[in-house]
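testing teh design pipeline on a random one, pls ignore if ur not involved
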């Protein structure tokens, strides 16, 4: 195994990880051995991040790195990705900023059960946009800390998002086309999207 990649799962005041995100990082520690652990995500477009006492944002990946450091993982084995604001960005920036420059090919990708079907589809899509070949194993962790009705609502939203994304995947089949789509159509990363951020309704943000 070359690296373990952990998707962000939200961050609370004080940089605290929610229980389902803790489970992701616990599994990463169990699996990684001496391999690097890559913490993904700046945050979410659905809500602004909490701030630390100095006024800096608590990024999801930074909160994950802090958790790993507290668990005794050596800092040289922890890498932070702080550019993505959704699962598609997680995959894209993980590939471009960490996996490809490091020459990694044997990867473990970790996220929660409710998030795994869409995450797997996205990572296989994004990592398949270039000729390189990767061995990716996907590890789903328990949805700790979420009421069953919230998990079910989230699964339904995940499934609907994946159905909509399937149409994009069918027409975006190489990296230049993806880049164009990502920055001109995907509102988490377009100029219009960046300049018109507003918190989403509570039911969208309920698990963060």
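output:
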């Amino acid at each position: 195994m070359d690296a373990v990649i952990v998707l962000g799962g939200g961050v609370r005041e004080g940089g605290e990880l929610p229980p389902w995100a803790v489970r992701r990082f616990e599994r990463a520690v169990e699996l990684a051995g001496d391999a690097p652990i890559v913490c993904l995500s700046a945050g979410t477009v659905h809500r602004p991040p909490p701030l630390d006492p100095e006024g800096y944002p608590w990024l999801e990946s930074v909160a994950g790195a802090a958790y790993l450091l507290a668990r005794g993982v050596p800092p040289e084995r922890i890498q932070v990705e702080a550019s993505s604001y959704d699962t598609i960005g997680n995959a894209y920036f993980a590939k471009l900023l960490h996996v490809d420059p490091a020459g990694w090919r044997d990867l473990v990708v970790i996220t929660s059960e409710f998030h795994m079907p869409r995450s797997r589809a996205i990572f296989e899509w994004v990592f398949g946009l270039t000729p390189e070949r990767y061995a990716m194993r996907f590890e789903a962790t328990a949805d700790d800390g979420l009421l069953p009705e919230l998990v079910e609502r989230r699964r339904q939203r995940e499934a609907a998002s994946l159905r909509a994304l399937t149409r994009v995947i069918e027409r975006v089949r190489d990296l230049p086309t993806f880049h164009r789509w990502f920055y001109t159509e995907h509102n988490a990363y377009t100029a219009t999207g960046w300049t018109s951020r507003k918190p989403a309704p509570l039911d969208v943000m309920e698990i963060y």
